[in-house]
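Schema walkthrough. Field components (list of strings):
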Amino acid sequence: AQTVTQSQPEMSVQEAETVTLSCTYDTSESNYYLFWYKQPPSRQMILVIRQEAYKQQNATENRFSVNFQKAAKSFSLKISDSQLGDTAMYFCASSTGANSKLTFGKGITLSVRP
Amino acid sequence: SAVISQKPSRDICQRGTSLTIQCQVDSQVTMMFWYRQQPGQSLTLIATANQGSEATYESGFVIDKFPISRPNLTFSTLTVSNMSPEDSSIYLCSVRQGYNEQFFGPGTRLTVL
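Field assembly_structure (string):
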């Protein structure tokens, strides 16, 4: 079974600054994937970034990057140059290679202040 | 990524009735999923919709309550049966594409009175 833990319920950041969202996970699988999803008030779930467990290099997508620490089972998301449009719920999630079922963390509410 | 639509986008229903939610994808996909997001909560997988066979349900979800159809590779429906206020949630469908990525529809917001 997989578990995903997001212990921070909410965070706030000033526009243009950098913020890091934390996530830890647990799995017995050797082949798994980790994701960060964004859910703005419109409720549309948007895939932000993906990390394959077998890759040592941290994934990066424009202003979004991850710090993947496999031994510590940690998968944090860094948002650089925060924008007002980044205000949303952020969910960390994991899936195995076999069945693709996503297991989500509880989510964190991020507010970007002007 | 695939373009996914859901109907209806929202509905208000009376207790004891049923609602069918449709999920349409603009390309053929092998794997489709249905999730529930209760108010202020995270997403929980209800079932995997299998084309041409019965859906695979997660623990705590049963076919009598959440019957699912998957007649082809671009379409699926989820029915919420004999609704109670506890069924008030956002229901989302998703599809798997690429390297184990899942993309979501816009969701259906259901309120049961």
